[in-house]
Amino acid sequence: MSDPFDPPEDPHWITGDPWITACRGVLWFTGACYLLLGLASGPLFGFATMVDPETKAPPEIALVAGAVGGGVMLVVCGGIAAVNFAAAWGLVRGRMWAWVLTLIVGGIYAPSGCLPFGAVLLYGVLNERTRKRFRRSAPASRGA
Fold this sequence. Notes:
Structural class: mainly alpha
Oligomer: single chain
Number of helices: 5
Low-confidence stretches: none
Distance between the termini: 19 Å
Radius of gyration: 21 Å
Mean pLDDT: 82
Strand content: under 5%
Number of strands: 0
């Protein structure tokens, strides 16, 4: 009797799996949104501090504050985008670490405002067919 968790022997299983494709699309989309947010936050911070009527600081200080705030946002949002892009890249190659990373990202998105994205990611990597297929790329246990 064969193991019910044995992956299929089809060598092109990743390209034919609609849930892997959906997960990759969500990861690319959210990564691009985070990257754009990081790039746009510098000018937005600077503009917000310059047009605030309560601010008594000179415009140069507002520009520096905007640049520093924008730089921090670029680093943070760029890091989140890089994690999304890395997970999407690894999923198409069938890497187990990418499956785990997608599971973590979906778990982070699910209880937030990104609930639809988190739900797609969680269901996409936790359905039975996908779990079986990614079992192939898991390292074999040693000394069984």
